[in-house]
């Protein structure tokens, strides 16, 4: 059994029918034990426990979904679009990587209470020589309590497809979070891999 970030697609009745992996492969859903229902003919970003079924010729014939949850995947907004201002409560990144049209993040938080996440678009620029877009983002994180006593994971998936405009060959992401060290840390994901700036 595997656990991965994927994009799932529903049919006319809202049932999930297929998935697109972050390797760019599309599979039919042969069985969905999760029972998730969504809007008709929609796509939804998920983290799923699943297994593949292999046909007699050795090819994958489809997948069986077990437990899954929807990731937090809103389109980034500029700072001025947040009515109450940008909130940056602390958190820590357990893992971060570029997927298929998404930036995937597994986040750990310590506070009790309700957590609200979003993504702040700090700036976008395009290098015409390389054809790459540089996207600067900050994690929006608001918490309804200041009690810190346990660890909890959150699964985020930042949409990036909207930055692949005409002439853009790739996206370099600068993703900043406020940490428990009372400082910002920036995760840079570009052609050369992952780099971290800050403490």
TrEMBL record:
<dbReference type="InterPro" id="IPR038179">
    <property type="entry name" value="NigD-like_N_sf"/>
</dbReference>
<dbReference type="InterPro" id="IPR038143">
    <property type="entry name" value="NigD-like_C_dom_sf"/>
</dbReference>
<dbReference type="InterPro" id="IPR035376">
    <property type="entry name" value="NigD_C"/>
</dbReference>
<protein>
    <recommendedName>
        <fullName>NigD-like C-terminal domain-containing protein</fullName>
    </recommendedName>
</protein>
<feature type="domain" description="NigD-like C-terminal">
    <location>
        <begin position="81"/>
        <end position="189"/>
    </location>
</feature>
<dbReference type="Pfam" id="PF17415">
    <property type="entry name" value="NigD_C"/>
</dbReference>
């Amino acid at each position: 059994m595997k656990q991965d970030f994927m994009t799932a697609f529903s049919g006319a009745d809202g049932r999930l029918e297929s998935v697109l992996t972050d390797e760019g492969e599309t599979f039919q859903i042969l069985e969905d034990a999760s029972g998730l229902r969504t809007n008709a003919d929609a796509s939804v970003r998920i983290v799923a426990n699943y297994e593949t079924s292999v046909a007699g010729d050795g090819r994958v014939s489809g997948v069986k979904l077990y437990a899954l949850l929807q990731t937090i995947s809103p389109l980034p907004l500029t700072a001025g679009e947040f009515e109450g201002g940008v909130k940056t409560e602390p958190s820590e990144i357990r893992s971060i990587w570029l997927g298929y049209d998404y930036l995937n993040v597994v986040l750990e938080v310590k506070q009790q209470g309700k957590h609200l996440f979003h993504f702040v678009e700090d700036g976008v620029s395009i290098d015409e020589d390389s054809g790459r877009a540089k996207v600067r983002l900050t994690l929006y994180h608001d918490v309804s309590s200041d009690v810190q006593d346990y660890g909890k994971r959150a699964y985020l998936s930042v949409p990036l497809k909207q930055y692949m405009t005409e002439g853009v060959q790739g996206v370099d992401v600068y993703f900043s979070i406020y940490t428990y060290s009372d400082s910002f840390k920036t995760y840079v994901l570009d052609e050369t891999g992952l780099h971290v700036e800050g403490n």
